[in-house]
Design goal:
Length: about 110
């Protein structure tokens, strides 16, 4: 049996928190085709995380992760900014979850070098 890594844990928690939103979006419209570079890849291409403050980078990471999981179309919705900011805030409030987010960022190679 394989272990669940930090990225998988964060994705699972986010998925559980946002299931209702995803069901609503799926009911209203078909999923838009994904762009060639996914949100996490675009975050990687944006440059080193050290250029942003920790909190700002975590917000961008959570937004990219959610968009990667739920599709680019939802990332363009006006309420998505508020929701992704709230999710980032909630993840940062719990020390265990915050540590998982940090581990996911390192595992994906997005941490400052």
């Amino acid at each position: 049996m394989s272990s669940i890594g930090p990225v998988d844990r964060v994705v699972l928690q986010l998925r559980l928190q946002l299931q209702r939103l995803a069901r609503e979006r799926a009911g209203r419209s078909a999923r838009a085709p994904r762009s060639a570079a996914g949100p996490l890849q675009r975050l990687r291409q944006a440059g080193p995380a050290e250029e942003l403050g920790d909190e700002e980078f975590r917000r961008k990471f959570v937004r990219a992760l959610l968009t990667e999981e739920l599709g680019d179309e939802i990332g363009n919705e006006p309420e998505f900014d508020r929701i992704s900011n709230e999710v980032a805030r909630m993840l940062g409030e719990d020390s265990d979850t915050s540590a998982l987010v940090d581990a996911a960022i390192r595992q994906l190679g997005l941490a400052p070098r």
